[in-house]
Amino acid sequence: MVVGVTGGIGSGKSTVTGLFKEMDNVVLYIADKEAKKLMNHSSKIRQAVILEFGKESYKDGILNRAYLSECVFNNKEKLKRLNAIVHPEVHDHFGEFLKEHEKAIIIYENAILFEIGSDRFCDVIITVFTEEKERIRRVVERDNTTEKEVLDRIKNQWKDEKKIMLSNYIITNNFMNRLHSQVKQIHNILTKKMNYI
Ligand SMILES: CC(C)(COP(=O)(O)OP(=O)(O)OC[C@H]1O[C@@H](n2cnc3c(N)ncnc32)[C@H](O)[C@@H]1O)[C@@H](O)C(=O)NCCC(=O)NCCS
Ligand SMILES: Nc1ncnc2c1ncn2[C@@H]1O[C@H](COP(=O)(O)OP(=O)(O)OP(=O)(O)O)[C@@H](O)[C@H]1O
């Protein structure tokens, strides 16, 4: 069973996913992390990225994230092109992962699940919700970045209302101490659903 976990930047997806990880029959697929690995190790992606964005895209052989962020998050057309290079490869990679974990609850964390059509892989979708102002505050603190940089990413993501309308479960992440019970409750339901698959 594929359970998509999505939500805007800084909403708490990784925190929620971390709680699921401790629960029975759960495996994780973190799309962001796998995308980065592929961008560093797939020669097909590397060549396409360099062709599109130049040699500066890699520094000492490693993906130059700061440079690429600068290129894409203020230019929708360029972001579209980067997405078109990276996402088909991530989707293929995820397809292989699925085959290996057919009997598990697969927690599939993806910040832009709906935006790139990855919701089509999911049996169930959870949106993690936190007010935008609080998300900005948390990310600025976590990444030692600026409000503008966070807003540049938010501009390229769907509004929460739209994601919520298309989700099966909403986790509200105002308080850390209220997260575990919400995650546990959903895990119990998913475990029951698994018995019917
Ligand atoms: C441009 C890159 C190199 C910047 O790396 P950086 O470490 O600064 O950011 P990171 O990847 O950790 O993303 C931080 C947050 O930005 C947002 N974000 C990332 N990629 C995108 C995107 N394509 N569209 C909208 N928001 C995005 C997400 O909320 C994410 O959690 C990187 O974001 C990237 O390669 N993106 C393309 C791959 C991708 O879409 N990954 C996300 C899901 S698979
Ligand atoms: N309820 C909470 N109260 C306070 N801080 C929180 C709460 N939940 C998460 N955080 C913190 O907020 C930051 C963002 O959380 P997290 O990394 O889980 O979000 P994310 O949605 O995975 O972010 P991104 O989209 O950037 O990958 C982290 O530093 C995390 O420790």
UniProtKB/TrEMBL annotation:
Keywords: ATP-binding, Coenzyme A biosynthesis, Cytoplasm, Kinase, Nucleotide-binding, Transferase. InterPro entries: Depp_CoAkinase, P-loop_NTPase. Its main location: cytoplasm. ATP binds at G10, S11, G12, K13, S14, T15. It is found in: Cytoplasm. One of its GO terms (molecular function) is dephospho-CoA kinase activity. Its EC number is 2.7.1.24. It catalyses: 3'-dephospho-CoA + ATP = ADP + CoA + H(+). Pfam families: CoaE (PF01121). It is an enzyme of class 2 (transferase). Pathway: Cofactor biosynthesis; coenzyme A biosynthesis; CoA from (R)-pantothenate: step 5/5. PANTHER family: BIFUNCTIONAL COENZYME A SYNTHASE-RELATED, DEPHOSPHO-COA KINASE-RELATED. Belongs to the CoaE family. Catalyzes the phosphorylation of the 3'-hydroxyl group of dephosphocoenzyme A to form coenzyme A. This is Dephospho-CoA kinase. It comes from Asprobacillus argus.
